[in-house]
Amino acid sequence: MPIEICTIGGYSETGGNSTAIKIDDEVIILDMGLHMENYIRHTEDEDISAMHYNELLDVKAVPNYSLIKEWKSKVIAIVPSHGHLDHIGAIPFAAGIFPKAPVICTPYTAEILKSIFKDEKIKIPNDLIALNLNSIYKLSNKVSVELVNITHSIPQASMIVLHTPYGKIVYANDYKFDRQPTLGKKPNFARLKEVGEEGVTLLIVESLYAHEHRKTPSESVAKEMLKDVMLGVYTDGKGMIVTTFSSHLARLKSIIELGKKLNRKIVFLGRSLSKYVSAGERINLIDFQKDIQLVKYNDKREKVLNKIMKEGKEKYLIVCTGHQGEPKAVLSRLAKGELPFKFSNGDVVIFSCSVIPVELNKDNRNKLENALKAKGARIFKDIHMSGHAAREDHRDLIELVKPKHIIPSHGSKEKGKHIVELAKEMGYADKNLHLMEDGKRIILK
Ligand SMILES: [Zn+2]
């Protein structure tokens, strides 16, 4: 069968997601992501706009496209599944290798890309095409791409379906099945079922939490957890700070709702919060600024903090960047006393996130928490539910789309083997289950 797959990145370790799929003589690249840890380590204090692909490749921060050197002229599209940087972050540096291939993604993902290009003064030669969820785009006479609505931890995440003469290819990297989302629609189960009935040759599916024997709880559960802390802890007269992923607009929406219930004025501080919220507002996904003050520029930040200290921080809810303890983000700078804000005993700091389990983040978070504790802050951690599917979600997905072949993605073989184990439990034979590594190829038979 003339489908060949090159698993370029994200198959030997977590990050730098990218997969090339060759259908006869045409190639589609799914995701073009950064390896975040390597990227952050390398780009600290550097001007990103001056950075070249080869420099980032040397430090393994971007996927290695020399692996598909002889496919270069055949690439007809680059399709990122959603707006997380481990899926789109290499586009500014690598899309130009394939200048004729348009980048096709949902409108929110496109807005994020546009703001990265603008902020970093980067231009790419490729067309950028915003394709609405649940619609199909014809890439050539043989191949079409469809973006099916799915839930994750960022708006407008998609499950990519490639329509080929040799059956469909479903790319589920990243997703969870959330029947009670707090922003956006439920996953399009009806369409996934239909796709399954039309015939799926291959499912590429994330394996990050495939080892967890459960269903990943809904975002509405995370909202309840937040409510339990924000409304359930004695905070009269105290400062309250919440931090979460800047692109997690559903979570931010819950935080705003709860802040309003507390009658606190809500202030968003930090560059990346401003970027993701503004992108969402530009395409009318959200309308946060009727309820919050979004501080876009660093020079305004000090002014706003001075005002908060003067009026009384118990009247405010500060939502800021720095949930992973990033040293330059707002929360670390507040904790270090670099900004005009003073902690008092009993001020509340809520981490509505998990710690991404890499050494850099664990280190940074430790330092931040110690600094906050030294100032007398009360810390609430892990007020969070993941956006990644667990084993029982994967079972539902496999049941729905009934793929002939399965390739686990988003992590090492160690993670992927849990998908293989699940599929075998569901009756799959070894010959249809393929544990890949970065840079490997497979022809489907
Ligand atoms: Zn993601």
Summarize the topology.
Elements: E1 3-9, E2 18-23, E3 26-30, H1 36-43, H2 53-58, E4 75-79, H3 85-88, H4 91-94, E5 103-105, H5 107-119, E6 128-130, E7 135-138, E8 144-150, E9 157-164, E10 167-172, H6 189-198, E11 200-206, H7 219-230, E12 240-243, H8 249-261, E13 265-269, H9 271-282, E14 292-295, H10 298-311, E15 316-320, H11 330-335, E16 348-351, H12 359-374, E17 378-380, H13 391-401, E18 403-409, H14 413-425, E19 440-443
Parallel strand pairs: 3-4, 5-6, 10-11, 11-18, 12-15, 12-16, 13-14, 13-15, 16-17
Antiparallel strand pairs: 1-2, 1-19, 2-3, 7-8, 8-9, 9-10
Helix pairs in contact: 5-9, 7-8, 13-14
The structure holds zinc ion.
Zinc ion is lined by residues 82, 84, 87, 152, 174.
